[in-house]
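User: Structure tokens for this complex, please. No commentary.
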Amino acid sequence: MDALAAPADSQWPLWEVFTQEAQGAPHEHAGSVHAVDAEQALQNARDVFGRRGKVISLWVVPTEAIVASAPSDAGPFFDPGAEKAYRHPYFYKVPKGIRVY
Amino acid sequence: MYGANVETAADRKAPAPVEDPALLAEFQARIDRGESIEPKDWMPARYRRQLVRMMSQHAHSEIVGMLPEGNWITRAPNLRRKMALIAKVQDEAGHGHYIYCGTETLGVSRDELVDDLLAGRAKYSQIFNYPTLTWADIGVIGWFVDGAAIVNQTVLAKASYGPYARAMIRICKEENFHKRQGFEICAVLSQGTDAQREMLQDAVNRWWWPSLMMFGPSDTDSPNSRDLLAWRIKRFTNDELRQRFVNLTVPQAQAIGVRLPDPDLRYDADTQNWVFGEIDWAEFWAVVNGNGPCNRERLAARNKAHADGAWVRQAATAYAAKRAGAPRDGGSTAAA
Amino acid sequence: MAPDATPDEPETGAGAPVAPRIVPVTTTLGPLRPTATSGQPADAFVEYCLRLADDRLVLGHRLSEWCGHAPILEEDIALANIALDLIGQAEAFFSVAAEAEGRGRTPDDFAYFRDDVAFRNAMLCELPNGDFGVTIARQFLWTALQVPFTKALSAASHAQLAGAAAKAHKEHVYHLRHAADWVLKLGDGTPESHARVQAALDGLWPYTDELFYADGVDAAVAALVGAPVVTALREDWARTVEAVLRQATLSVPVADWTPAGGRLGRHTEHLGHMLAEMQSLARAHPGAQW
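Assistant:
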């Protein structure tokens, strides 16, 4: 109980905040907040990012839970995807006047 | 803003680590291509250090800046001004918040940043070490100080470090109301009673020169500037930004019939600049080094808030620790 | 003493050459004229609105004193948010009062140019902020009533009043969520936080009785526009509050005195000082525009 009687004084753990600005839009990364738990993170995110009324939904995630690709992975992870033209509509030629969606 | 990136003698003495020239060259090439540097990217140690200092000074400035303006919240003369001022000071907290979070991406915790400020190790914009003596000061701060900030900020919105640039874009969007609020207060005072007009002129007399000092001394004295410019953290020199601010502000002063306390101020048709008088840099350095009118009070106030709040922060931490391992349930509270 | 000298005791006429005129006890000085604290308002509806508005102006002002001094940056932002909401609500209720009164007074006139005896807030709102525990406890106790109260008021038949109440209700729901969460964290945090928030609750509890004060004003407005009478909400309030306190491992205090009078302009000495500061600049330049 000693650790609880006098816990370390900190600025609290970091959470990342994602906001949705309109119906149907994706949640986008807005920034971060400090909070001790999810309820507090939601409230702090609402106060920090929602003051100007352009938020209709919020996600908060502990920063440590985010797994990111490393910059050094960029080549093998992403370059091949950028070079596969057959995944894109423009690769395929269709006679003029015919609509194929 | 508050990008007067103040270096102390200690900063200049810090050893410059030797970086791999190939990595440095590729880093510079990325910057030159206009790319954003993100938290996990390789960056020179000096770049990281400069950014930590610049961003933390900026964040500290926002936080300390809440105090001189907060000084008039309880005496704001009508409900509209009261709400606008609370909202402005709240924005300053919010802006400090964005920038602290951006600084944390560089590997330093907010705990360390707060400790540095409270211990007097960190710098913040010197302008907030002046007292707000009348309501007109609130208008003039919005006009001059936020005005100066905007001159700097729009540039920082394109800074090379992604988290800083993104924080600055958010801040720029919110900052416009601050300057307009300030200038509107001044415009109304300038059309008011004799006492109000005198209050305004008095505030202008006291805040003009310190506002010019916000941009920092001439860069010719600063070896860091060259790197900051090359790394796209800075795009214009201190003198260029100061001149831009003066050129914007003089016509505004004329529009509301306020005189700027500079007998040497004159328009140069050749350069299209408003040429101004000599700045007293001794005053600037005295204030930066801790001997301005309010340095001690500002730090004391921040230290008191922090000390008085320790039991609160600890309570929250203890509460969460007791529940660690329980399923997170973000949507409900006892009183929902 | 010489006969024409001033008597030692002028009021009794002792030593005077002429006997004093005695006024018979049955003669009165006329009917009681209403004063700011006599409890006889000119207009019940206006009075009702001022009670709502003054609570919010005074409490909002108190919260704004925390700006730049809160325990952590996130709370500077949160408390400022609540202060702004409350002052905005005050302005809305002052507008309803001004419109009904029809004397051309504005919300600023009500806020800045009335003396403290004319204010109609509950005393709980004007008490000094104390530490964060006192501020949170006060916010929790007061807001726990405002949520159901403004919900009921938003059904009133007076459109402007109901509209202001509906907007306020949404804000109060969020404020209560914030305050209740903090009551839990402080009550069930550390031994120190528990002791501080319990002490805060013990000190504030007696002032909660006044939140349920109702008189002819409430009855009149209930009859006029279907506004709620606050006494009907007491049981639910007590249940809500007690549930949170229990969950926070706190004890429900027992009041050994019940101060009241704020609704009739009889305040604590704290309000005078608060208003002296709040109104000082506006009053120093009467008639000036800002």
